């Protein structure tokens, strides 16, 4: 793999994550606002249902397209969506409080869709270009570009946080759309510069391939189960953190700034991990240990939330889980994806990273809602989720066994 392709792909991830992290703090603020209104569960349910509807449409388009067209169609659609939000938000008057609230809710749902699709399409490109053993060694370097993008996007978000009160989404959306357009241009260039039959040919198959393979193929089903479990656990962790963050400040700009500051802490740590540790750890210890350890980290975090809940614990939990996710766990999963068949690389990987993970969010929210209705203290719920963390480790072991004959290292 050429050095130019690797650097460009890392820069592409920089742009992709920059565009998302400009919006992420606003999305998190919408979650806090709607949690206090007991509406967050409804929004997560709508998100999961929307993902279920969108995925067959994406699979239908992918079946009839090559990589370049998939990139153009998906990123152009997301950019048009951003401009639609920009146009509608500018049309609202200060007296349209109800419409502004619903715009925020719709934006929250859309952000959850955006965050997973924009990244999933990027990884479709990566796992179809960087497939051999030598190329997979570069995943850490490529992801490092994304971490720099997260830092850059978070910094933009911090600087725009004061504008949220008067201008709402306007500057956030405009910044994200410009960054994503630049990402699309770079992605098209990378796809054009790799003129192989694998990339230029249509993916083929049917719109239902991803769903059928998850049901009928044990390997895909186990990967899907793992993704469902870790997002379920991450959601329980996040909802447990919301009341702590609410108690930190009643003001939206201050909470948005806190979210962005957390990103600025997590992203450099992730960057250093990706640059210096990702390949070494995966090569030395293998995918098996990484997939198993994730569940153990959730146990540690849940014990802290249950026993000593505080803003400091929230920051620590975010740093620990997300550095491990993006430094080790995500690269390991992408290595497994890169060994799948062509249709699964284009369809099943996207379905898992979009609908299955959003369904994990919904399941985690439902469990927290059941706990609330049962009058179980919010600080107790993380402790009750510890067996699920153990199940995550067991599922990780099953994945590594299924992949042991295929994946020897990055």
TrEMBL record:
SUPFAM superfamilies: MFS general substrate transporter (SSF103473). The chain crosses the membrane at residues 40-58, 70-88, 100-126, 138-159, 171-192, 226-245, 292-321, 376-397. Keywords: Membrane, Transmembrane, Transmembrane helix. InterPro entries: MFS_trans_sf. The keyword Calcium does not apply. Gene3D superfamilies: MFS general substrate transporter like domains (1.20.1250.20). This is MFS transporter. It comes from SAR86 cluster bacterium.
């Amino acid at each position: 793999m050429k050095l130019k392709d690797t650097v460009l792909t890392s820069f592409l991830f920089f742009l992709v994550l920059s565009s998302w992290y400009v919006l992420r703090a606003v999305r998190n603020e919408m979650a806090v606002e709607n949690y206090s209104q007991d509406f967050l569960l409804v929004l997560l349910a709508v998100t999961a249902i929307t993902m279920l509807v969108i995925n067959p449409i994406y699979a239908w388009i992918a079946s009839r397209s090559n990589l370049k067209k998939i990139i153009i169609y998906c990123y152009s659609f997301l950019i048009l969506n951003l401009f639609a939000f920009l146009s509608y938000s500018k049309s609202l008057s200060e007296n349209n409080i109800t419409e502004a609230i619903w715009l925020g809710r719709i934006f929250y749902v859309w952000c959850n869709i955006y965050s997973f699709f924009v990244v999933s399409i990027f990884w479709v490109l990566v796992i179809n270009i960087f497939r051999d053993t030598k190329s997979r060694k570069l995943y850490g370097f490529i992801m490092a570009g994304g971490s720099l993008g997260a830092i850059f996007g978070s910094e933009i978000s911090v600087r725009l946080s004061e504008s949220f009160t008067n201008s709402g989404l306007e500057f956030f959306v405009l910044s994200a759309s410009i960054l994503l357009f630049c990402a699309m241009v770079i992605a098209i260039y990378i796809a054009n510069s790799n003129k192989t039959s694998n990339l230029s040919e249509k993916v083929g198959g049917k719109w239902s391939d991803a769903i059928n393979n998850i049901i009928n193929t044990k390997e895909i089903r186990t990967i899907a189960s793992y993704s469902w479990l870790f997002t379920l656990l991450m959601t329980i962790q996040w909802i447990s953190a919301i009341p702590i963050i609410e108690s930190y400040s009643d003001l939206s700009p201050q909470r948005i700034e806190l979210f962005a500051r957390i990103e600025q802490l997590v992203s450099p740590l992730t960057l250093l991990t990706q640059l210096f540790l990702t390949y070494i750890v995966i090569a030395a210890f293998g995918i098996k240990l990484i997939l198993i350890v994730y569940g153990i980290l959730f146990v540690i975090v849940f014990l802290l939330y249950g026993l000593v809940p505080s803003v400091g614990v929230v920051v620590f939990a975010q740093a620990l889980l997300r550095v491990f996710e993006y430094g080790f766990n995500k690269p390991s999963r992408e290595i497994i994806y890169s060994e799948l068949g062509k249709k699964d690389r284009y369809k099943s990987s996207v379905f898992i990273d979009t609908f299955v993970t959003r369904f994990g969010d919904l399941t985690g929210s439902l469990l927290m809602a059941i706990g609330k209705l049962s009058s179980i203290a919010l600080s107790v719920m993380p402790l009750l989720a510890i067996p699920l963390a153990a199940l995550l480790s067991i599922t990780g072991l099953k994945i590594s066994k299924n992949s042991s004959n295929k994946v020897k290292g990055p």
